[in-house]
Amino acid sequence: MRFPRFDERGPLAVIELGALRSLNAALLTARYELQSASSMWDRLQSGGDVADMHEAHTTLPFYGQAIQEIASGATAYERHVALIAWRYTAAAVVLGVTVLQRVAEAKPPLSPDTVEELCQEPTLGLLHEALSVPVADLVPVRDPDLLDERTRTAQRWAQVRDRVDDAIDLVVEIAADEEAAHPRTKEEAAGCLLTEHCPPHTDPVYNGVLEPLFDLAEEVPFGISRIIAKG
Asked: How far apart are CA 89 and CA 35, in angstroms?
């Protein structure tokens, strides 16, 4: 999935269309780079298995040491890319849903200041709110005979929303484990940025959320296009 064609004279403001297109390019780049980083990690894991077998017959540990040293850097890079990907992907979802909803409801274009604000990484709570918008009901179905498409879409969005809810809970748990003063409650965690609450020594908070969020972020502009085409 890439980015749909939009008529420059259509209902999208120039700033809205430009922001949607730019965030789409950013998240796609980050997604591809994350896939590459993950492949590198998988390859190094396989190399580690080979090193273990090799060193079973020698007292010299250099093969395994090299793999471990490289893998350490690869792990850090993978998380670094994932956090960048999260920032742009979450912003693309929030901006995209906001534009989609305002087009569906025939409201005036967003102001440049609002667009700029929505291009920043959203809090987990703001992302959860965007995922709660009934996108499936706002986007016309492609085939009247396939009304279950709407049901499947609603289910996919609900699943990702639930995973964001789990991520909010995890942020609270991490803070408690770290004996941090903030956040102490789920409400406080909802006001946090994921990238600021994902310590490198913990399991990534974005696990299980980022991949399906990629799909929704790429899907939203096409939903906007379908609403416009439907008129």
From this structure: 15
Alpha helices, DSSP H only, in 7-61?
14-55
Q: Give, for all 231 residues of the chain, the pLDDT tens digit.
A: 589 999 878 899 999 999 999 999 999 999 999 998 888 766 766 655 655 655 556 666 676 777 677 767 778 889 999 999 999 999 999 999 999 999 999 999 999 999 999 999 999 999 999 999 999 999 988 766 566 888 899 999 999 999 999 999 999 999 999 888 889 999 999 999 999 999 999 999 999 999 999 999 999 999 999 999 987
The residue behind tokens 């709110």 is: 129
Residues 168, 125 contacting (CB under 8 angstroms)? yes
Distance in angstroms (rounded) separating the CA atoms of residues 64 and 138: 55
Cβ atoms of residues 166 and 133 within 8 Å? no
Smallest CA-to-CA distance from 95 within 65, 126, 57 is with 126
3-state secondary structure of 57: coil
- CA atoms lying within 13 Å on the CB side of residue 109: 14
Q: Where are the alpha helices (DSSP H) in the chain?
A: 14-55, 62-104, 112-118, 124-132, 135-138, 148-177, 186-190, 210-230
C-beta of residue 190 within 8 angstroms of C-beta of residue 124: yes
